[in-house]
Design a protein that fits this description.
The protein is built from 23 helices and 41 strands. It is of the alpha+beta class and 974 residues long. A hairpin with a 6-residue loop joins strand 34 and strand 35.
């Protein structure tokens, strides 16, 4: 009997599944998609409006496909087991397309799906194998075609009008639009002043004081107008006074007022548990509580889903599939959670299981729609902690606690609201609320974490405590935490025992001036939240949306918040103006609903595409004619040139907008031949004036040295200047008057000197296999790559890093240029910071790090240089005239054994030593270039070498810290 072939997406998943299926199955990985649209063509049929895609084997996947074909030809049965979503269904369809031609029995190919990689779920999936779901395939194919139509037909417009290499995306552009519009709101925001008044009150001697806030006068609430909302309705700031004059008037009354308790209301408040995680909620909480970005969250979750080695258990999938927008949970999982909760105490277990409403009607048979949860509740975070990395443990604990707490009883608070009256000429109303946790309920794990953090703080040193406090401040600063912070403060606020009519003493009044703040910029969590709320994109696309707008340099992260770059703002403005229908958030959300209808079989995918293309084609024609040409933009400004005082104009260059002098001209200088000038000066004058125009400069030159120079404004001055120039030079040149002054438009670019702009990038993970990405260098520069890039079969996931980032403003130094005397500037370049003359391009001086050794070839200086890969070498400053270069540092010391004027510093595992350049045996061996002739030494051999430093020895007391001992401190900020 032959074996069955099982094809999954990633090698990690293949390893886990192989353990459950046994020796009768061969489990192989496709490493993601194996087919796609061609890159050099749109690949979609548009002439007849069939929208049929042209699919080819993805470049680099030929070996994978050939191997799978050979295995499928020998297999008794082929099972297609990619992920249980649209992408996975499309991969299964493409695999079937490639494998069916080589299979003898075309019926022996089936589709299997499982929401969790456990033995029970995997074996059950194989018992319920099915055909490929064509509706799911159509939905994915429709999304791919939509994105291709937009990208391949709008991007050329951007190349022509803005800059080559730009691209547009159907969903990414809408996400970028949200970020840009939020930035415009922030820039246009006008703060509104308002005041609050707090009163510190004392009920009696020896009783704790409490603080109440003023909320009204004579029963009428106080409030301050704060503009209007999007619908035109007035908006007010509650419990506030408009200005200091009003505050001073109230404070004068309150200082002599009689304070009494008007009423005390006590009630029990219940706080219900939250639903298990969907993808977006997990991404939001991981960002706010763990500091993970979306890419990192999904990478770690991918590894937890595919399997982790758990001691004797072997490789175990710890969580269910992590791309879902459903809160539904299987009955078996609920039963397991209730059994665990019952052991905590009967008070924590509700009588019936908690149910949570989903966003859309769910089909119970579709396991792909289950919420994110642990596969086994019995695998508690603490019990498997030693088998997980720190980030895996923290994310798994988040998922485990959220799922278990979702099936627990509500938390119960005793809430007290106290109304206070201050009677003077008027009655001023004050109020304070406080609540105390009566029963923790589903907050049990949160309360335990609080206690653990408190213990960790008590044990931590001062330095460690400062680090923890700093981390907690960063977490608290995450957008969306403000409401939770207020709720926590209220829940921890304890009030003294108060009775109606009780007299109170005034300890202090605290009037506080405040101002409204602009809406906060989006961070990853809040952007995912708004995308979900507006129905833009789906759980599987949030990570790619955020990655794409960053990779294209349309946004930059500053202090964990998204700031649009100038190019991002310009592209968004052009696309929204010229494609108002296609890039409208409501229309994009509507398209997502139609894609769901295709998935459910309620709408034909070609009908959806026809409807879309009707709008798109019209807007494309209009945009081709009307889109503003940014490349050729020349806008007048009020700025003046620093060199000649002429008005500056705004232009667009390779790296964005910049200011240029209006007197700049591209007209080239013209040599005045003295022979024709003497024969017919009028004809030559006319030719020069027509070519250059006035004003101009006449120069008399000998080779490249100018001996005479005069600015002229008319023909008489021209004749005199040419005559004078001929006396001082062999060549007479007429140059047009041109001012080459330019300056960057920093106002349009993000402030890269702001705090948080230079934060170290977080770790990144492969979207296909979940492994940590590594930095590599290629022919076109550095890039992030999956560590399996060179494996067989390869995982070719990469992220380019070669795109130009907007630079920091240059910093003027006190040091002067040794060539022209102008100030030196510290600039930020492609390969890091460098110091150059402010007179560039006329003065091209760049300060170099020079050695105190002269070049052995031509006597020039030797400078420290770097390759594109970042490696250091030492080369002559007269390159390319002199090609001397060395990978070893040159030391200014004569060799005592031969006539060499320098020695080389060689460092390796044995230490550091000085070696004569003529000591061939003592220098590192270099492999000659392929085909190059063997170089014969042109000097006598030398044996000099001297050790100057021994090998580096680690101190004996250096001990690697125990992760288990240090984790509580790290987790105290989670």
């Amino acid at each position: 009997m032959g074996k069955s072939l099982v094809i999954v997406e990633s090698p990690a998943k293949a390893k886990t599944i192989n353990k459950y299926l046994g020796s009768d199955y061969v489990v192989e990985a496709s490493i993601g998609h194996i087919m796609d649209l061609p890159k050099n063509d749109i690949g979609v049929e548009l002439l007849k409006r069939t929208f049929e895609p042209t699919l080819i084997v993805s470049p680099g996947k030929e070996k994978v496909v050939d191997r799978l074909k050979k295995l499928a030809a020998k297999a008794d049965m082929v099972y297609l087991a990619p992920d249980p979503d649209r992408e996975g269904e499309a991969i299964a369809a493409h695999l079937a397309m490639q494998l069916l031609p080589v299979m003898k029995d075309k019926t022996k190919i089936r589709r299997v799906t499982f929401n969790e990689i456990t033995e029970k779920a995997v074996k059950a999936a194989f018992l319920n194998a099915r055909d490929v779901d064509e509706n799911l395939v159509d939905a994915q194919q429709t999304r791919r075609v939509l994105d291709r139509l937009v990208g391949y037909q709008i991007s050329p417009l951007l190349w022509d009008k803005v800059r080559r290499g730009l691209s547009a995306g159907r969903v990414q552009t809408v996400a970028l639009r949200l970020i840009v519009e939020r930035e415009l709101e922030i820039n246009a925001f006008v703060p509104v002043e308002y005041w609050t008044i707090d009163a510190l009150l004392n009920p009696a001697k020896g009783v704790q004081d409490f603080t109440a806030r003023m909320v009204g006068i004579e029963g009428k609430p106080i409030r301050v107008a704060n503009g209007v909302d999007k619908e035109g309705k007035e908006v007010f700031l509650a419990n506030a006074l408009p200005d200091k004059e009003a505050v001073d008037e109230v404070v004068a009354q309150l200082e002599t007022a009689k304070w009494t308790v008007r009423g005390v209301e006590k009630k029990e408040r219940r706080r219900n548990p939250q639903a298990p995680y969907t993808t977006s909620k997990l991404q939001q909480d991981a960002a706010g509580r763990l500091g993970f970005n979306v890419r990192r969250t999904m990478g770690v979750a991918q590894r937890l889903y595919e399997g982790v080695e758990i001691g004797k258990e072997g490789t175990v999938g710890l969580i269910t599939y992590m791309r879902t927008d459903s809160t539904r949970v299987s009955p078996d999982a609920i039963l397991e959670a209730r059994e665990y909760i019952g052991k905590l105490g009967a008070a924590y277990l509700p009588k019936t299981a908690n149910e949570y409403a989903g966003k859309k009607k769910e089909v119970q048979a579709q396991d792909a729609h289950e919420a994110i949860r642990p596969t086994h509740v019995s695998f508690t975070p603490e019990s498997i902690r030693k088998h997980l990395s720190d980030e895996q443990f923290r994310l798994y604990r988040l998922i485990w606690q959220r799922f278990v707490s979702s099936q627990m009883t509500p938390a119960v608070f005793d809430q007290t609201t106290v109304d206070v009256a201050a009677k003077a000429d008027h009655t001023y109303d004050f109020r304070v609320s406080g609540s105390v946790l009566k029963f923790e309920g589903f907050l049990k794990f949160e309360e335990e974490d609080k206690k653990a953090r408190a213990i960790a703080k008590d044990k931590a040193s001062k330095e460690e405590q400062a680090l923890v406090d700093r981390k907690e401040e960063q977490v608290a600063a995450q957008e969306g935490d403000a409401g939770e912070k207020e709720e926590k403060e209220e829940s921890e606020r304890r009030l003294p025992e108060l009775n109606q009519g009780q007299a109170l003493g005034l300890t202090k009044l605290d009037p506080l001036q405040k101002a409204t703040e602009p809406p906060p910029r989006y961070n990853e969590a809040s952007l995912v939240k708004v995308l979900e709320e507006r129905g833009i994109g789906r759980p599987s696309t949030y990570a790619s949306i955020i990655n794409t707008i960053q990779d294209r340099d349309y946004v930059k992260k500053i202090g964990a918040k998204f700031v649009p770059t100038e190019i991002g703002t310009v592209v968004t403005g052009l696309l929204v103006k010229n494609f108002p229908y296609i890039f409208d958030p409501q229309y994009t959300a509507k398209l997502e609903g139609e894609l769901d209808a295709v998935e459910d079989g309620q709408e034909k995918w070609t009908d959806l595409l026809n409807s879309f293309y009707d709008h798109f084609e019209k807007e494309l024609l209009v945009a081709g004619t009307n889109m503003e040409d940014i490349k050729r933009m020349e806008l007048k400004t009020d700025e003046l040139c620093d060199k000649c005082g002429s008005p500056l104009i705004m232009k667009w260059g390779k790296f964005g907008s910049f200011y240029s002098c209006s007197n700049f001209t591209r007209t080239k200088p013209m040599t005045i031949a003295l022979g024709p000038w003497k024969k017919d000066p009028k004809a030559v004058t006319k030719k020069v004036v027509d070519a250059i125009g006035f004003p101009m400069t006449i120069k008399g030159m000998v080779e490249d040295i100018t001996n005479f120079s005069e600015e002229i404004a008319d023909t008489k001055q021209l004749a005199h200047a040419v005559a004078e120039a001929a006396k001082f030079g062999k060549k007479v040149v007429a140059e047009p008057f041109s001012c080459d002054f330019t300056k960057e438009n920093f106002a349009a670019k993000p402030d890269l000197s702001a705090p948080g702009a230079d934060e170290a990038p977080e770790e990144e993970f492969c979207d296909n296999c979940g492994r940590q990405m590594v930095l590599k260098n290629g022919p076109w520069g550095p890039f992030m790559s999956c560590p399996g890039y060179s494996e067989d079969p390869p995982c070719k996931t990469i992220r380019k890093l070669t795109q130009k980032v907007q630079q920091k403003p240059p910093v003027q130094l006190e040091e002067a240029c040794p060539k022209c005397g102008k100030p030196l500037l510290q600039r930020d370049g492609q390969y890091g910071e460098f110091i150059a003359c402010s007179g560039y391009p006329k003065c091209k001086y760049v300060k170099q790090d020079l050695l105190d050794v002269k070049c052995p070839k031509d006597g020039g200086d030797i400078a420290v240089r770097k390759t594109k890969r970042g490696d250091t070498f030492y080369g002559c400053v007269n390159y390319p005239k002199c090609d001397f270069a060395s990978n070893l540092r040159l030391i200014n010391e004569h060799c005592p054994k031969c006539d060499s004027t320098y020695v080389l510093e060689v460092t390796n595992a044995h230490g550091t030593r000085l070696v004569c350049p003529n000591n061939i045996d003592g220098l590192p061996k270099r492999r000659p270039k392929k085909g190059a002739p063997v170089e014969e030494p042109d000097h006598a051999p030398c044996s000099f070498e001297r050790e100057i430093d021994g090998p580096t020895v680690l101190p004996a007391e250096l001990v690697r810290p125990d992760p288990a001992a240090t984790r509580p401190l790290v987790e105290s900020v989670a």
